[in-house]
């Protein structure tokens, strides 16, 4: 199951494009149009990100944010609102929001913000005790990676690339997404920078016996997957 996003928005003409855009990104998306329905949804089904409008018909979005945090919700909350004042922004963050996006906003910007929130709040993944002891363990908060008891020394860019691939484990992540998320959407340098980073990352993982492999999908991107029975010489970085 993919990462889940809950859209809390009472205006259909805003909600529908959001839902379609996020679903095309591969997220599992639910939509509710009131604050109470949002709280009920979060009480029953965990979400990784909540996109929360402040101007809801029943409960103010700030109150929804506060109640969700008090109930123990640990996912990311991004407030979207037509209220552009600095005071509203500060209050929203004080109530437990992680990010704040003013209307009107571009869908590309919202996608980038959601991906950034998922990177910051994801707990990575850990191999269960009965699986390969050389599987990856990623501590996002500490920005550290371990294989068994051994730490894998990574640069900041290497960590970001690995974390994104791990969050989409066994799925192909496009080169364009990795460049936009790890470097910058306005990066004008060569995309060979990504290939060099992937090459160093592979070497470091292999040097400590990590069983997961970073596989290149020609013309598309890269995928993190479990160790293959034998190397595939047809796959090139």
TrEMBL record:
Listed GO MF terms: phosphorelay response regulator activity; transcription cis-regulatory region binding
Keyword Phosphoprotein among UniProt keywords: yes
DNA-binding region: 126-226
Positions of modified residues (4-aspartylphosphate): 53
GO BP term (any one): regulation of DNA-templated transcription
Superkingdom assignment: Bacteria
Keywords: DNA-binding, Phosphoprotein, Two-component regulatory system
GO cellular component: cytosol; protein-DNA complex
Domain OmpR/PhoB-type: start-end pairs: 126-226
CDD domains according to UniProt: trans_reg_C
Pfam family, one: Response_reg
Domain (Response regulatory): residue spans on this chain: 4-118
Matches recorded under PANTHER family: PHOSPHATE REGULON TRANSCRIPTIONAL REGULATORY PROTEIN PHOB, REGULATOR OF RPOS
Protein name: Transcriptional regulatory protein YycF
């Amino acid at each position: 199951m993919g990462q889940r996003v809950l859209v809390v928005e009472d205006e259909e003409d805003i909600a529908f494009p959001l839902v379609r855009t996020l679903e095309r990104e591969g997220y599992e998306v639910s939509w509710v149009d009131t604050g109470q329905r949002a709280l009920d949804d979060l009480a029953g089904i965990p979400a990784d990100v909540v996109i929360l409008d402040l101007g809801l018909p029943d409960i103010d979005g700030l109150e929804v944010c506060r109640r969700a945090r008090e109930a123990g919700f640990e996912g990311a909350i991004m407030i979207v609102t037509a209220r552009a004042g600095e005071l509203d922004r500060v209050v929203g963050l004080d109530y437990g929001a992680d990010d704040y996006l003013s209307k009107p906003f571009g869908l590309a910007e919202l996608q980038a913000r959601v991906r950034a929130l998922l990177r910051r709040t994801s707990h990575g993944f850990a191999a269960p005790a009965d699986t390969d002891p050389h599987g990856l363990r990623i501590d996002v908060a500490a920005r550290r990676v371990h294989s068994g008891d051994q730490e894998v020394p990574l640069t900041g860019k290497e960590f970001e690339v690995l974390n994104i691939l791990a969050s989409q484990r066994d799925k192909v992540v496009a080169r364009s997404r990795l460049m936009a998320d790890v470097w910058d959407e306005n990066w004008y340098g060569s995309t060979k920078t990504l290939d060099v980073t992937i090459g160093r990352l592979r070497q470091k993982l292999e040097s400590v016996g990590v069983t997961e492999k970073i596989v290149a999908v020609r013309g598309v991107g890269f995928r993190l997957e479990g160790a293959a029975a034998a190397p595939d010489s047809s796959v090139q970085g």
